[in-house]
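Hi there,

I know you've been waiting on this one. I reran it after we fixed the sequence typo, so this is the corrected version. Both the input and the resulting structure follow.
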Amino acid sequence: MKGQIYILILSAVGIVNACLAADSPAEVTTSMPSMYRQELLGFRKHVTFSNALNFYRIDYTQWKSHDATPPKINFALQYPLEYHNFSRPLGSFFRMTVNGISEVSLHPKEEDVALWNDARTGAAGCDITWNFDGAKLILRWFMRSDSPVLWLTIKPAPDLLTPIQSAHVKVSVVPSLLAQTAEKKVLWAGVYGRQVITSARIIDQVPKSQFITLTPDDRYLILQDTKFDGSNGEKGTGPCYMAIDYQGVEKAVLTLRDEGYAFVDIDLKPDFKTARLGFWQQKDRHSNAEFAKVFNAKRQTFEMALDKGGSP
């Protein structure tokens, strides 16, 4: 019992220290690691974002066609967690379809990934260009010096050639964990207590046939599980967080069921000028209660990029 209490105290201290750390300029770097079956890689970049409060690494990979499999893109958030919340090493946490074309079928080039630093604000980030057959978008991923969140701003590129008729974003998340049997078999449904706390309400998991429409009052989503609440090593990693700026959003729908995955689907207005999202998770396990305490104390650091207009 004493050991469990000690672990919980350390976890709480870790998350508090991370969120209360002194500001320091954010940094962004890229690397191009080798891997097994290198001959199947068409393109790969690791983009790492960090400041004194947190760090993230996106793995942006295009696999060449092989056998009967066509080329495809994988866009994974690999760190600060390897699994759960937004992280799945071989799964795209962020998907986008524009004019009926999925990002999976794009063909990235070196010049499509551009790093930047803003000395004025201490922010740093990476502009990634996705060209959907002339409907070109710039995805600006970045961290500020004063926030633990990985922010995203989506804008049509200045040299947009094809009008945007439809734009859909899909975010996948595994709140806290995927439960397993003693034999390590994943339990995809029937054991969870999925819950989302927004700025306006508490949403509990719903039956399979139901979806939850989000509104501009739901400025942020704390995605967690009431059964696997992160309070010890057998109860997952704890909650994660997503922020949504509804400017430019036509419709946002949450899929939250007694299942492993939850989804946020966002339809952007065809004439949108800017879309803004934020994502937070951290390496150290933390319980629902621990995160709630820190979030309530430091809420402005989780929402500030939306309040300040998004990007530097």
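Quick highlight: The domain at 2-307 is CATH 2.70.98 (Beta-galactosidase; Chain A, domain 5).

Best,
R. S.
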